[in-house]
Design a protein that fits this description.
Shape: globular
Number of helices: 3
Strand order of the largest sheet: 1-2-3-4-6-5
Structural class: alpha+beta
Radius of gyration: 17 Å
CATH superfamily: Gcn5-related N-acetyltransferase (GNAT)
Number of strands: 6
Largest sheet: 6 strands, mixed
Helix content: 10-25%
CATH architecture: 3-Layer(aba) Sandwich
Number of domains: 1
Length: 145
């Protein structure tokens, strides 16, 4: 039996959030908004997934909109998706994303080489405040989970 000092601790990155619904705190999916650094700190990579029983209810759209509020310094979200993933594209369209192009043979899922679309959004019309990334992250780290 391993002692507690032998056990590995798991750390969840600051940019990763579970989508919990109902009152049981069961995770129904996730949203990941990962800000870039340096000159690219005004942009962030977006990732998301949701279990099928909650599809077509606006859950992912709402979760992304709320999650993005945690990163006021981010002016533009960027996402990529399998060109055949219609649900993902519907979410991005509802959020105002614009397709920038298709990356041919860009990823492998289940041993299948797939094309991905690259979509970008600046959420036009939103008044985004500008604060430093370090300030945001330090205040975020100090807040209780």
């Amino acid at each position: 039996m391993a002692s507690s000092s032998d056990q590995t601790k798991m750390t969840i990155p600051l940019h990763f959030r579970s989508i919990c619904l109902d009152d049981d705190d069961r995770s129904a999916g996730f949203v990941s908004i990962q800000p870039r650094s340096g000159d690219g700190r005004c942009r962030a990579n977006l990732g998301f997934a949701l279990i099928p029983e909650y599809w077509n209810q606006g859950v992912t759209t709402r979760a992304i909109t709320e999650g993005w509020k945690l990163f006021p310094e981010v002016a533009k979200l960027e996402a990529m998706a399998d060109v055949d993933n219609n649900g993902c594209h519907r979410v991005m369209e509802k959020l105002g994303f614009h397709k920038e192009g298709v990356l041919r043979k860009h990823t492998v899922i289940n041993d299948k080489l797939l094309d991905c679309s690259k979509d970008m959004n600046g959420f036009p019309g939103e008044n985004r405040s500008r604060i430093g990334l370090r300030k945001l992250l330090s205040s975020f780290k100090s807040s209780p989970p």
